Amino acid sequence: MHRTRDGSRWAAATLTAVLIGVGFLLWWVTAGRPLPDSAGSPVRVEPLVTMIAYGVAGALLIDRRPDLPFGWLLAGAAVLVVVQVLILPPAYAAVLDGDRGAWARWGLTAGTFAFAPVAVQGLVNIRFPSGRPAGRWGAILEKVIITCTVLVMVGGLLGSTTLRDVAGGATGLSHPLTGGTAVGRIADAAIVLAPVVVVLGLIAGIGVVVRFARAEGIARQQLKWRAVGVIVALVLFPPAVTGQLPALSNTVDAVVFVLTLVIPVLRYRLWSIDTILRRSLVYGAITAALVIGFAVLTGLATRVVSRQVAAPVAAVVVALSFVQLRDRTQRLVDRLFYGGRQDPYRTLRDLGQRLNAVPGGDALGSFGHAVASALRLPYVAVERADGTPVASYGTPVEPLERRPLTYEGRLEGFLVASARRGEEGFDDRDHSLLSDIAGQLGPALHTRTLTAELLRSQQRLVAAREEERRRLRRELHDGLGPALTAIGLTLDAARARLETDPPAADHHIVTAREAAAQALADLRKVVHGLRPPALDDLGLAGALRSQADRLTAGSPLRVTIEAGELPDLPAAVEVAAYRTAVEAITNAVRHSDGRQCRVHLDASVRELVLRVDDDGTSAGPWPPGVGVTAMRERAAELGGSCQAGPSPGGGAVTARFPLPETP
């Protein structure tokens, strides 16, 4: 963004001057007073159109791009026309009434300022669209036009030719300062350069057409509009110089010139379209309000004082009310275009209330809609760190802005937003407000993630419980059930032969006893699968020692169990730690060539830490087999973690199991 505060002030000053000129011109014309052109003919529309077109367009360009010359040139020409309108009509009316005093003759020299828009068109054509002269010949042509324009303006202010031309060729009019002197004669001669400036301006316009024919890409599209304006100016040139409808030709030329300068700027994004529209709405509304206010005040004041007093008083009142009216209208239009960006604290408060009002996962979707509506954005989305969308509103439009969402220093995701249509990106205020919004969304996304993980964990637990129930049902039904049935049938057979065939009865009883022993073994296997009995009989450390002795029988590996005073552990933690340690010892026995294995248990207030180390060698990272995966899943089910792999001393398995807080 190239806009500066000084640019905005000059834009406001230009519009204020134009409003005063427009108001004075309307009052003067409605009063039935004559208004001369450069040939002394009455006109009404030409200066009005020139002031408004050049003034509004110039103020707009100064406000947005004060670094480019176009706005300054247009504004300068508009202000000179305003000066002409304020000074020339009273002087012209005085001359018509027979007053040829010094002040009236000085006022007629203001007709020279009508030449400014003509010179400005040539200078704009030389510098469009980059703001710099188009090549070496363009720079030379620009210097010649500026020099000739200055000479023409000085000649018009110091010579007598302008006085006689504006007054319709009235005789006996001489310049009050230089009339009859050599300076006056030189000044009159300098006015002859006016047609030279016009011809050079046409040459500059032809240069625009030539550059358009040679240009490519976006420059060709920009020059196309200005080339059309040049062609229209060439068509209007003959009737203007021959005296056929000169006022109409000049009016149409001024409008076409401004339009063909502004349209490519808006359409091909020399700067922000939405911002220009916003400023246009502001100043258009202000212009309408002040013109109406000036007319009303002038009409009311003329009932009390004369018209000569009423118009200046109304102009002063209108000028004083400009700043306050502009600020109020600016806030209204900013709210329309940018939503709550102008009041970030209120916006954050409303968004926070919106975020807390909707429970659960729907809060993020509602929040995205609220952000898009509050800031007038076409697209807002919330994504996880891996790019998975969580919630979105609208349709994405380039460019996209991505703001990180963090919680306790950890990246949770991103807030994605599209810039407003017609804008090339976000400015500093947007960036600041989006950062504050992202600060609120980080904890919300973290809560959403935790909720989703909790739901998945609950689903896994329910699935695991049902799978375990089905396994128990299958083992009891297929294993223990037939065994008990067989025992009952065998006992029935033994009772039937107890009196008739005692040896057969004894055989059936022995068979039943063996079946009962097998059923008991199967039952113990099922019970051991639920929870190892050794944990209840020996405790965690003792159960690990017992199991380690059985696993290392006949193996050179020796296992050492290190455990201090362990508190009463939750059953789930105790079983998970036991099975993880047994799996780690089993892997060391099967795959390690080490001689020593150390199992260390350490319980703090918050967690139980299990570490199993061996001094064997490892060829590389451990593949995620069934055993390693099972260890990690057991820790994750309890909210812990498990790391398994090679270490500098051999192999290592470290598992952490959170412990519940003791009331």
From TrEMBL:
<keyword id="KW-0812">Transmembrane</keyword>
<keyword id="KW-1133">Transmembrane helix</keyword>
<feature type="region of interest" description="Disordered">
    <location>
        <begin position="640"/>
        <end position="663"/>
    </location>
</feature>
<keyword id="KW-0472">Membrane</keyword>
<feature type="transmembrane region" description="Helical">
    <location>
        <begin position="43"/>
        <end position="62"/>
    </location>
</feature>
<dbReference type="Pfam" id="PF07730">
    <property type="entry name" value="HisKA_3"/>
</dbReference>
<keyword id="KW-0902">Two-component regulatory system</keyword>
<dbReference type="InterPro" id="IPR011712">
    <property type="entry name" value="Sig_transdc_His_kin_sub3_dim/P"/>
</dbReference>
<keyword id="KW-0808">Transferase</keyword>
<feature type="transmembrane region" description="Helical">
    <location>
        <begin position="69"/>
        <end position="91"/>
    </location>
</feature>
<dbReference type="InterPro" id="IPR050482">
    <property type="entry name" value="Sensor_HK_TwoCompSys"/>
</dbReference>
<protein>
    <recommendedName>
        <fullName>histidine kinase</fullName>
        <ecNumber>2.7.13.3</ecNumber>
    </recommendedName>
</protein>
<dbReference type="InterPro" id="IPR036890">
    <property type="entry name" value="HATPase_C_sf"/>
</dbReference>
<feature type="transmembrane region" description="Helical">
    <location>
        <begin position="144"/>
        <end position="163"/>
    </location>
</feature>
<feature type="transmembrane region" description="Helical">
    <location>
        <begin position="247"/>
        <end position="268"/>
    </location>
</feature>
<feature type="domain" description="Signal transduction histidine kinase subgroup 3 dimerisation and phosphoacceptor">
    <location>
        <begin position="468"/>
        <end position="535"/>
    </location>
</feature>
<feature type="transmembrane region" description="Helical">
    <location>
        <begin position="103"/>
        <end position="124"/>
    </location>
</feature>
<feature type="transmembrane region" description="Helical">
    <location>
        <begin position="12"/>
        <end position="31"/>
    </location>
</feature>
<keyword id="KW-0418">Kinase</keyword>
<feature type="transmembrane region" description="Helical">
    <location>
        <begin position="225"/>
        <end position="241"/>
    </location>
</feature>
<feature type="transmembrane region" description="Helical">
    <location>
        <begin position="280"/>
        <end position="302"/>
    </location>
</feature>
<keyword id="KW-0067">ATP-binding</keyword>
<keyword id="KW-0597">Phosphoprotein</keyword>
<keyword id="KW-0547">Nucleotide-binding</keyword>
<dbReference type="GO" id="GO:0016301">
    <property type="term" value="F:kinase activity"/>
</dbReference>
<feature type="transmembrane region" description="Helical">
    <location>
        <begin position="189"/>
        <end position="213"/>
    </location>
</feature>
